[in-house]
Amino acid sequence: MKSTEKSAGIKSRKHATPTLSRLHLAALATLAVPLALHAEVAPEQPQKLPEVVVDATRTSDFQTTKSANEKFTAPLLDTPKSVTVITSEVISQTGAVSLTDALRTVPGITIGAGEGGNPVGDNLFIRGYNAQTDTYIDGIRDTGSQSREIFDLEQIEVVKGPNSAYGGRSSAGGGINLVSKSPKAENFTNASLGLGSAQYRRGTVDINRVINDDVAVRLNVMGHDAHVAGRDEVNGNRWGIAPSITLGMHSSTKATLSYYHMQSDELPDTGIPFNNPFTTGTNVSKNGDGTPISVPRETFYGLVDRDFRKTQSDIGTIDVRHDFADGMVLRNVIRYGKTDNDYVWTQPDDSKGNTMLYGTVWRRANTRVTSTDSLANATSLSGSFTAAGVKHSYTTGVEISREDTDRSSYLFSPGTNNPVNNAGTACPISGAATLYNCTTTINPNPNDPWAYTRTISPARTSVVTNTRSAYAFDTVEFTPQWLLNVGLRWDDYRSVLDVPMYTLNGATTAASHAEVKSNFTNYQAGLVYKPSTNSSIYVSYGTSSTPPGNDGGDGLDSLSSTIQNLKPQDSKNYELGTKWEVLPGGRLSLSAAVFESEMNNARVTAPDGTTQNVGKKTMKGVELGVSGNITKEWQVFGGYTYLDGKVDDNGSVNVGTTLVPNWQPSPYNGNVFPTTPKNSASLWTSYSVLPGVVVGGGLNYVSKVYANINNTKYAPGYTRFDAMASYDVNRHITLQLNIQNLTDKLYFDKVSSPHYAGVGPGRSATLTANFKY
To answer: Where is the signal peptide (predicted)?
Structure first.
């Protein structure tokens, strides 16, 4: 490893490290933290973690200097983009056990609720834009609807702003990169066993073994079983295993083979319906205020005898890299993945205003039987060189991928919309007379004897998406004070929808076909000025493209004949920001940014009733972030985000009839983005009060979030508090107590459906024993 910067030493209590540059040392010290967690602590060690000193100052466990994504060609300090890294220490201290748990620590991200066309699973919104398909594992898109675990993750990287230059088709909001655990060059064994309220049980094992100088293996295993605190019926269990092996640990050519398997079985949550405000008519006096109805937190509208959700994910990866003598690196990654999402889930439907009018809820059965197979290959070349006195740090590469999704649904006999006693879906009555398809708003019985026969519908959808991409990134260092970061990516995108002919209830439906072919180029550019070695000020511009059928047939953006000929939705983002590493050794990172994003060709209904790229959305915002150590004992991680999202042009609506249409400008023009809080903040902090004793706590604040573009239904704002304490029993065992939702706050953490809001978990306590050898 070479560097032109001034060298400095790094010291550890157990190992001596060769002399390297300060920048390289900071990166190595940060990457060494997960390994340090497993190292045997000397008896006289006063701190919880072994001491790692860079220039005589300990590097924070909550801080990292370099992204694991090789497309970032500069340290995060000098990257002209908002990037938040959730380290393994933050994940561990906060007691997170899923991806959505971990993302609570990052303001500006909201979780969407499942709906008819929107699958149950991770449904993320970043800076107000749907980022459902923008999750990556080690830089490669992770397709298929699922709920992701964290047992095999080293860290989570949240990239804000247009993501297409990095990942191809994507939203304007950003993306999530999950960094997997991989074999290390030392032996260690990590294990945890947790018990808690709401029948919480969880165990993990992380074993790393060095076979010889060139071979190391690692195995991660997880088992989890728990109910959701305050939601009596809601529960789930899952287990996973992730083995990996690295060949050529100290060779110029290194290969890592890994496999990931996770499956789950749960009773999915139904949430609470909104008060459905009538706007006109004889029932206007029954208007609700648009918030979730007032019922006890444990109220569950699902059916134990009907509802279920089963998922399975299998991912196999071969990652080969060759280091050339001049520092250039050639890497090739090939990955195969398969994701299944199979469920029957009750949506508490209020579409007829029945919750206010009759005091009833329609148990609408949303179902899905889906399987996604994906195959991807990514080849990249990275390195650095100096030409005409100007230094370049570059990465260039090509990516090829194929995604194949088959989707269907379940049919029931008897059905879930039986007009028994004229109940239909309006539910003027409830109970046995409706075959329990309608229930009472107050005190519904989840154990109602709902009897049925379930079969898979003959109506099946197949979507095959092929992409070819080429990209190049370069950080140009004109002087130590001035840098230019540029990136360019070209994508060839093709997605084909096929629905074979089928017969249902005696009626035959003809086969249908839709296809979209699109080429799009995205780019980004950022100019960085460094007032000092520990700071940067930047201005950047970036673009993003969202083609029709972006979700590959497994989400809200489904391909159809209506949208197949449309252009990709193009977005652009302007950002001005600054980053500082302050206090001795740069142990505390501070960041701030202001930005504006625009989507000028959003898909909406045009004045002639067709779907066209004529809509417009804008988002303006401010972001603040902090990560690292205030003192040697005091760690902090958090931020604040202000989002001002407006739907400038939502197209047209028909205020006439089908036969005599009268298209007028949408009455929702100027409304606030759904699923977008104007203000959100998070803070997690921990303090070593005594040697081996750490206390910590956190808060999450989210202001009001609208559930629909009408801005008539919304989840109220809330503040949630968490607490943690850990005690080192000895050098091998640590006990950690986490109390989530300390005040037992009733809040709603999932919106996006206009029918209901997801209920946040109540207060829970878990005690975890962590073992390190």
So the answer is: 1-38
Asked if 253 and 320 count as a contact pair (C-beta separation under 8 A), the reply is: yes
User: How many C-beta neighbours within 10 Å does residue 527 have?
Assistant: 16
pLDDT over 80 (residue 38): no
Residues 297-347 pLDDT 10s: 999 999 999 999 999 999 999 999 999 998 999 999 999 999 999 999 999
On whether the CB atoms of residues 699 and 718 are closer than 8 A, the answer is: no
CA 721 to CA 731: how far, in whole Å?
Answer: 30
pLDDT at position 46 over 70: no
Per the CB < 8 A criterion, the answer to whether 230 and 298 are in contact is yes
Are the beta carbons of 616 and 631 closer than 8 angstroms?
A: no
Distance CA 301, CA 49 (A): 47
Identify which of 32, 27, 33, 35 has the alpha carbon closest to the alpha carbon of residue 1. 27
690: Cβ contacts below 8 Å, ≥ 6 apart: none
Banded model confidence at residue 61, pLDDT cuts 50, 70, 90: low
| Beta bridge partners of residue 279, listed in sequence order | none
Please name every residue paired with 592 in a beta bridge, in sequence order, or none if there are none: 578, 624
Phi, psi of 275 (to 5 degrees): -60, 120
Work out the pLDDT band at 18, boundaries 50, 70, 90.
very low
| Cα separation, 524 vs 485, whole angstroms | 8
Q: Mind listing the pLDDT tens digit for each residue in 595-617?
A: 999 998 888 888 878 888 888 99
With tokens 């029993």, the residue in question is: 729
pLDDT higher than 70, residue 208: yes
pLDDT tens digits, one per residue of 413-468: 887 776 677 777 788 899 998 889 999 999 999 999 987 888 999 999 999 999 99
Q: What is the three-state SS of 671-731?
A: EECCCCCCEEEEEEEEEEEECCEEEEEEEEEECCEECCCCCCCEECCEEEEEEEEEEECCC
For residue 332, which amino acid is it? N
Closest CA to 533 of 463, 479, 484, 610: 479
Cβ-proximal residues to 471 (8 Å cutoff; 6+ apart), any chain: 71, 165, 166, 395, 396, 397, 398, 399, 487, 488, 489, 490
| CB-based contact 270:301 (threshold 8 Å) | yes
Are 163 and 129 a contacting pair, CB within 8 Å? no
What secondary structure, in 3-state letters, does 492-542 show? EEEEEEEECCEEECCEEECCEEEEEEEEEEEEEEEEEECCCCCEEEEEEEE
Q: If you count DSSP H runs as helices and E runs as strands, how many of each does the chain have, helices first?
A: 6, 48
